[in-house]
Design goal:
By secondary structure, this protein is α/β, with parallel strands linked by helices. The chain is built from 3 helices and 9 strands, in the order ββαββββαβαββ. It has 2 domains: 37 residues, no CATH class; 85 residues, Nucleotidyltransferase, domain 5, CATH 3.30.420.
Amino acid sequence: MAFSSGGRTQTSLAEINITPLVDVVLVLLLIFMLTAPVLQSGIDVAVPKTRSVNQLTEERMVVTIDKEQRVFLQDKPVNVHDLPQLLRGRGGDPSKKTLYLRADEKVPFGAFASVMDAVKQAGITNISIVTRPLDGK
């Protein structure tokens, strides 16, 4: 809208105040930075290092074996003999499920093989073993 006052015209300035927007964005950034490390699985396992590592991009079923050979489904401890029933009880077609297996690098192969056998008994055939990348080249 133009106003006339003695030969000059003035226009009203409509400005958007972005200070509240910047405040909200910074608070959200801070929240995401603080919660991102917590989203990782809560069981501390030193997985082996390999050259090819794929990043997990969506939530999947994770079975973890820690260095004391305890077995966890997601973050809950389970008995390896109950694992097939627990995995089948998650619903859906087991042949279409993907399972991620995290094992500490100090776990003996026998314990790893018994967990793999329990997963196969549940009917899950798509199993990915979680590793971390090698440091350097």
